[in-house]
Amino acid sequence: MQTTLNQGHSTTKRTKLELLNNIFENWSGAKAVAINKLPASGSKREYFRITGEHLSAIGAINEDAAENRAFIGFTNHFLSLGLAVPEIYFTDLENHIYLLEDLGDTTLFQFLIENRNNGDFPAELVEVYKQVLRQLPKFQINGSKKLDYSICYPRSSFDRQSMQWDLSYFKYYFLKLADIHFNEQLLEDDFNTLIDYLQNTDCEYFMYRDFQSRNIMLHEGQLYFIDYQGGRKGALQYDVASLLYDAKADIPQNVREQLLDFYVKEVKQYLNINEKEFKEYYYAYVLIRIMQAMGAYGFRGFYEKKAHFLQSIPYALQNLEWILAHVKLPIELPILTEVFRKLMTSEKLLKYKPRTRRKSTLSVFINSFSFKHGIPEDPSGNGGGYVFDCRAIHNPGRYEEFQTLTGKDKPVIDFFAKEPDVHEFLTNVFALVDMSVEAYDERNFTNLMVNFGCTGGQHRSVYCAERLAEHLRQKYSVQVSLWHREQD
């Protein structure tokens, strides 16, 4: 049951922790035991996991009142249709805060990374994506009925103005900052040609707007959908393009085509559509979505200096390269095509291009250990490498239910998945180790040792060692050996 609170002072007069404590206590009837900020995304919204003795919830703070109204209005509408979105427990819109159902931390993107093996896309993942695509028309078609589009933010439809904003975002925050030269008027002419073409589609459906793997959650065996506050009226093609050309998800092209065919069949259960015409417009929407995303990579990466956004650039360029080679749109976009080709050969962008996979001579030895028994010796005799002290991380070994388990057991894995300090710790570890792996591999070195230590060598160090091994196997072709010294 959603409760509303519209009293109190502004967030400038009351601290965020006070607000989160108050809203949690008003909802649950008990004080919060812990409040942990969740990792930041690309927006200005802030999210916190609030934990009580028996309940947990996600607190959201967002100073943009119009965006809050859109999210809450959409959520209530979708819940009324039985769609899988988070329940809203409590709102305090005067203070720009609301309380959401806690859906855990496993996004579709995280699930994808954990289940890919050396770049393969296993059948299990294809089935999960099909489940997602079964749900998408329910939002787009069923969800559009009786939806109050007046609450949309910032516009009620993906119209000419919205498209122009996205293309300008790409032009000024990506092309300009990447030092790509172009004739501005001729490029604008191509933009207008593309917009004119896109506006011929049927745009009477709910367009989720940011339908991608980080906005889909897997919780207790079910799919849930989040972050649709930017939704508006638009074409069906945009959201499926967003999902299948989600840059870092790096879905193989044959799988994309298989999933697109599956989605079209699902849509045909609701609507009578011309499949050939649908797919022609689809690839035009793929283009505008890629450009919008690249604008975000440029703004967050080049301008705001958030390096992880730059990591998506090579995948976006690979997608553009495939489209240029295989897709023929029924419109001419000569200057835009020329700009895309300049992007492919830009020296500034080449440094973000992932290294070509080759057989590597590098072996990475990853160990977990207890500091009580000393740091493991390097059997290669090279010395060096890394020793990471995991004792700053919240220790599940303090709790009786985890004492006989290790960092490989699901209850402990689930415990760490809810701890923001673990995510931050491993993000920094991955960045440092990646730097050494790439340098060592380039120089044909043969050994790198990475050690994770904690008090008992049972929970924190084991979990971190497992996550690094998983990360390296996914990203590189190096040989990875894993040893849990205190367990073996």
Reading side by side through the largest sheet, how are the strands ordered? 1-5-6-4-3-2
Number of domains: 3
Query: Rounded to an integer, what's the Rg over CA atoms?
Result: 24 Å
Shape: globular
Termini separation: 50 Å
Overall average residue pLDDT: 91
User: What is the helix/strand order?
Assistant: EHEEEHEEHHHHEEEEHHHHHHHEEHHEHE
Q: What profile does the largest beta sheet have?
A: 6 strands, mixed
Low-pLDDT parts are 3-13
What is the number of helices? 16
Q: At the first level of CATH, what is the class of the largest domain?
A: Alpha Beta
Residue share in helix: 40-55%
- CATH superfamily placement of the largest domain: Aminoglycoside phosphotransferase (APH), C-terminal lobe
**Percentage beta strand:** 5-15%
Per CATH, the architecture of the largest domain is Alpha-Beta Complex
- Report the CATH topology name of the largest domain: Aminoglycoside 3'-phosphotransferase, Chain: A, domain 2
Which structural class do the helices and strands define?
A: alpha/beta
